[in-house]
Amino acid sequence: MSKHEMLGAPRGAEQSELACTINGEEMKLEVAGSKRLLSVLRDDLALTGTKRSCEIGRCGACMVLVDGKPINACLTMAYQCAGKQITTIEGIGADDGGMDPVQRAFLEEGGFQCGYCTPGMIISVKALLERSPDPSEDEMEEALSGNICRCTGYGGIKRAVERAIEWRRKAP
Amino acid sequence: MLLNRETSGKRWRIRPDGLGKVTGSLAYLTDMSASGMLYGRVLRSPHPHALILSICTEKAKQLEGVHAVLTHLDVPGLNRYGIAHQDQPVFCENKVRYVGDAVAAVAAETAELAEYALSLIEVDYELLPIVDDAELALSQDAPLLHPQGNVLHRSQFSRGQLDSGFAACSHIVEDTYFTPRQMHTYMETEGGLFVPEEDGRLTVYSPTQHGFMDRLQLSRIAAMKQERIRIVSSPIGGSFGGKDELNVQPYGALLALKTNCPVKLHHSRWESVRAGLKRHPMKIAMKTGTDASGRLLAHQVRIIADTGAYATLGAEVLNFTVEHVLGPYRYEHVEVDGYSVYTNNGMSGEFRGFGGNQAIFALEGQLDRLAEKLGMDPWELRRLNMRMPDDSGPFGQPVVVTEGAMQVWNAAEASGLWRERSMPDGDQEREPWIKVGIGSAFTMHGGGLGVGIPDPAGGRLSLAADGCIEAIFGYEEFGQGLLATLELMLIEQFGLAESDIRMIIGDTDLVPDSGSTTASRATSMMWKTLQNLKAPFTSQLLERAAVLLGKAADMLVMGAGGIYETAGRSLLLTYKELAEVEGEPISCSTAFQFPTSDTARTGAHFLYTYAAVVVKVEINQLTGRVKVLDQYHAVAAGPVMNPQGFLGQIEGGSSMALGFTVTEDAVMQQGQYMTKNLDTYLVPTIAEHRGTVTVEPIEHLPQGDSYGPRGIGEVGSVTLAPAIAAAIYKAVGIRVTKLPIEPELLQNDCAFAFAEEAVSER
């Protein structure tokens, strides 16, 4: 028994295998079942585009797509991801390596400043437009109200969403 | 001209830091890691005020995987920090004064172990009475928080004869205004990576707004020569003033030096809340009077600011408030008395607007109340009392000639939104408990640190060996768009192409000290630097090219990709070819101070930005909630250097002002934070931003003005609050004196009765 086990320290919890797909790549990871997805992504896989901020599911900086739905990685346990398709900001681009139209719209409209909320924001917009290609203002508000941006006042973000909607409409 | 993508044309550009931000590939300093890295954590006081009787770290030290446990006994140098006044302990010795006070720090092999190690540190406290109210802290029998007393700073200003001034007044209004403990709420909490280098130097990767100030402060704490410390301070996930002061740096630095391993710290949101700075809560009492025609005669102000446990820039913030409670108006008789007071509440400090936000909320409230007494249009009352272009500054100090006040006044007066004010409802049908009103307010806001404070500026331009033109500045990018602004200035002033430019910022090993990236100063100072460097740098390049090309230097010009003949359009020589020629390196620097007024008054400003805001709000008398429908901002700050950045600063600043007005308050009781995270501390979401924001920059400067663009980083966050208060009064006849506005204030029994009736009729 090591010294810190005697003292009741965190015991490196039992590792178990997590099989899931991350950004299109099938993965088998040895992680503690109690670990959060946010930590798996940032600390184990160095996918630091997913950000850590409030850690209570309020700000949306850590949003990723799980089977196409936007979720807060800070509230998701690793074991809940078994068999799931996870897409982070690093995996959101087009298959040819180019940007997703949502990313391009944020870039061109200046829908960001410090950029720390941007990956989560783009994930939410992407999920919104997948399920509702031409959202009403109410839908947009509902879909993005879980993503806090402290810099922009949301003006640039709204313009980016409008631009993305327009591009997707024109796209073949 | 209204500012947007369409009106900006080619000047609306993709930001150089944009690609990394939208793809997630940009590594923030808190995203960094290193092999063999340890995790640092800080043990903070659970008590707002207590004596430390003993600290025992033995159990924590014995824990396997713990590499260091530090207390005040382990600080090699000065166990204090603070940008202006070093009174904040790195580690408390025998007393804690707020719930963020640090007592110990650990470095361990995992984050979990580090956290567990904190729980093994035994600290015995003896609780002391809590001073949780700034006014009580001023009373004779209040417990003393510091040996010298509870007043960090008192700032006074007077002119004329107040008594006779008020005696001559026909109308006098008196009111007291309260503003909240607003949190910066940068999305990236404080953190960073601290790396001891093989040669014994220390590299600090951690956000700050003035790398050289962090280097100076850390050198004092670690007892290391400044040159032995390298501060990498950019990019940053938001700051707004909140990362200007040291936060994790002392702990990361000392732990890394002690363990000789890289150490990472990254605050949880709760640790950021408890330890971090906030906007000073202020109580501002004002008595203001006019003659029968509405001319301001006398103005008396008393300010009490809750500065929390330690100084940081509390004194400087108060100086700013004292200047800005006078605003862009003329008075004969003035008396201002301000106190910045120590309490056991959370730390207050530097925050976008720097004490102007509180001042303008109160001052503009007074103008509105006086206008009503006079039966005068509130905007007309402002025109009547407005400063003139040649007037001296609020303290009577010489300032640059400026037409800004009249420019923004006129622009707001002519705006569509202000013209709607007599019939804000238009022909829209609304429920009877929904009321609509339009209000406006007016601001002048100083730029730079002011008289008496070192405020260095400058930068360097070089032709690098690979042919890039390097622009090197000691500034930080925390989202404001500094890099985009610099890039556009280089393109427009030197004719360069984007691909010719390399910008280097935020690294004390590579950049000159350009001063702090604060106080709305960086754009002005980069512009001035380029003005200073344009002639010498261009001539160095052209003279070298002239020799090479066998042409006269005055026949050559700089352009995209290289050197051109003045008359011709063809590229004669690329910058790369020029860089490959042997000779002295081509490089030019300039160093100067932010321009200041010729006065002895500490903190007085010389350059000001002006803003006027018109806002339309909707009040729901059942819920008491305020919804902003439309905003118009006129901003007079000289030429727009970067349209996207300008628009973003005003939109973003006004969002912060909206939170300040309607929801944001870091609530404390008995020195403890009640709002520990973003579930209870409510910043505006997209749902609060459904209306339009129209921004009108006024670029015209008086003839001969040589100061160029004024800062716009803060002014957007200042003027919305009093404009909303004015709009609320228009809509429902209720005066707001306390922010954030409590819904109860605006709920109305008649509206309830009406709603009940409507329901029962159904």
From TrEMBL, chain A:
Q: Where's the 2Fe-2S ferredoxin-type domain?
A: 16-92
Is Transport a UniProt keyword of this protein? no
What's in the keyword line of the UniProt record?
2Fe-2S, Iron, Iron-sulfur, Metal-binding, Oxidoreductase
The protein's matches in PROSITE patterns, at most eight in alphabetical order, are given as:
2FE2S_FER_1, 2FE2S_FER_2
Gene Ontology MF term list? 2 iron, 2 sulfur cluster binding; metal ion binding; oxidoreductase activity
Q: Which Pfam families match?
A: Fer2, Fer2_2
Pathway-wise, it operates in: Alkaloid degradation; nicotine degradation
UniProt cross-references to InterPro entries, sorted A to Z: 2Fe-2S-bd (IPR002888), 2Fe-2S-bd_dom_sf (IPR036884), 2Fe-2S_ferredoxin-like_sf (IPR036010), 2Fe-2S_ferredoxin-type (IPR001041), 2Fe2S_fd_BS (IPR006058), Beta-grasp_dom_sf (IPR012675), Diverse_Oxidoreductases (IPR051452)
Name-wise, this protein is: Carbon-monoxide dehydrogenase small subunit
- Annotated source species: Paenibacillus algorifonticola
Automatic annotation (TrEMBL), chain B:
Specify the Aldehyde oxidase/xanthine dehydrogenase a/b hammerhead domain's residue ranges: 23-129
Cross-referenced Pfam families? Ald_Xan_dh_C, MoCoBD_1, MoCoBD_2
List the SUPFAM superfamilies hit by this protein, alphabetically: CO dehydrogenase molybdoprotein N-domain-like, Molybdenum cofactor-binding domain
Q: Which InterPro entries match?
A: Ald_Oxase/Xan_DH_a/b, Ald_Oxase/Xan_DH_a/b_sf, Ald_Oxase/xanthine_DH-like, AldOxase/xan_DH_MoCoBD1, AldOxase/xan_DH_MoCoBD2, AldOxase/xan_DH_Mopterin-bd_sf, Xanthine_dehydrogenase_dsu
MF (Gene Ontology): iron ion binding; oxidoreductase activity
The name on file for this protein is: Xanthine dehydrogenase, molybdenum binding subunit apoprotein
Source organism: Paenibacillus algorifonticola
